[in-house]
Amino acid sequence: MEVSTTNTSITNGLGILQFLPGKTYFITGGTGFLAKAVIEKILRTAPDVGKIFVLIKAKNKEAATDRLKTEIIDSELFDCLKQRHGKYYEDFMLSKLAPVVGNLCESDLGIDANSISEIAEEVDVIINSAANTKFEERYDVSLSTNVLGPRRLMDFTNKYCKNLRVFLHVSTEALPHGREHSKEKAASEFPPLSYPVLDVDGEIEIALDSKVAFEGNLEDQKMKALGLERARIHGWHNPYEFTKAMGEMMINSMRGDIPLVIIHPLILSYGKGNLPTWDCRKPGIKVYHVGSSAVNPLPLGDLFKHSYEHFICSPINMDTEGKTVDMKEMKFFSSMDDFSSHMQTEIVQQRRLTISGNNASQRLESKCKMIVEHAINLARVYQPYTFFRGRFDNSNTHNLMEGMSEEEMKRFRLDVENVDWEDYITNIHIPGLKKHVMKGRGMPK
């Protein structure tokens, strides 16, 4: 008798295809762009999954169901599933997706007792994709969503979800000042630089006390300034990065024996589908960078070069007469001072084109000045990223994919090493911006 020596681990790979079917998921931030992509990927590659509970901020179940239909089910993102299921598409989606009325900013996530009982009994995987991503947000608002939100979710998990297999937290990858290379570690694992010891509870108290002190006296402006100040004191560029790092620390400190996966999507990244991170059989923590800077970087100069070439071939028009925008090659600056000086010169040149004393000309000059000031402010916000030359190690992600079976690679592989950036920018990225952001504005009729 011949005995088969086939290695099961090679045949099954990471076990993704064995893990997904029948599992029940609880997803926060489900109406956001990233979580919707995760939902679409799960339902397209594993239609025999169990149920996907989607936490939705709404007044009641009817309103939550309406948001589920308009923001998820009717989304163009799900066109592949629409084609596959035809007239049964909506029935299929409603059989898989269960809207849950709730709010990450409330105790027990604002979920009613019956829904809590159902989630507690059934859920296998929690995916936390909820976040406030504004770089200039009020400090208290950023803390509420990015730090207290994960705390409430992990508290909910420890309290109710006794059969949980994986807790997956979508964070962000940003380096504190002074680092130019990032290993795949949780925020709490980085050795300290020359910054004050971070006390998360202390930061929450500072924000709450300041909110009371600033009430009625330029509160929004001062709370935004406080967030930026506190972030920079501790070596981060903005409140978003800072609060997301604290959120990671909060989750890691509360998780106990719950298997934890942290995903770090990078600012410029590309992938075929979403990272499969379901093989977490032992309690522990795994961190995966999703990006290409270490193996297939996209220099900023190439990004602007490809964009320029695209708009030369496919110009846009921004007036009623259909005149096209005169495209010029991107000018690079070595510092913020150089950029600000250049923009101020633009104002002077604009003045020369106006007639002194003319009301229309004065309005034009005022509008030009406002646009320039806005551009300078945006440049300051994004300065840390435009001048950043670091690399993000993706060894964990690479090693994970090396263990995939052939079938898993077909469905889930992230092949960032072979992305053709010129093709992606000119044929996918910019057309997507034109369609979904500009909504067709400036396009030929």
Going across the major beta sheet, what is the strand order?
3-2-1-4-5-7-8
Distance between the termini: 73 Å
Q: Give me the number of helical elements.
A: 17
> How many strands appear in the DSSP assignment?
9
State the order of secondary-structure elements, H for helix, E for strand: HHEHEHHHEHEHEEHHHEEHHHEHHH
Strand content: 5-15%
| Percent range of helical residues | 40-55%
Largest sheet: 7 strands, parallel
Structural class: alpha/beta
Mean pLDDT: 83
Rg of Cα set: 24 Å
Any idea what the shape is? globular
User: Spans with pLDDT under 50 lasting ≥5 residues?
Assistant: 1-9, 267-283
Structural account:
The chain has 445 residues and is α/β, with parallel strands linked by helices. Helices cover 49% and strands 9% of the residues. The protein contains 17 helices and 9 strands. Strands 3-2-1-4-5-7-8 form a 7-stranded parallel beta sheet, with helices on both faces. It has a two-stranded parallel ribbon with strand order 6-9. Helix 12 (300-313) crosses helix 17 and helix 13 (336-353) runs antiparallel to helix 14 (359-386). The chain is globular, with a radius of gyration of 24 Å.
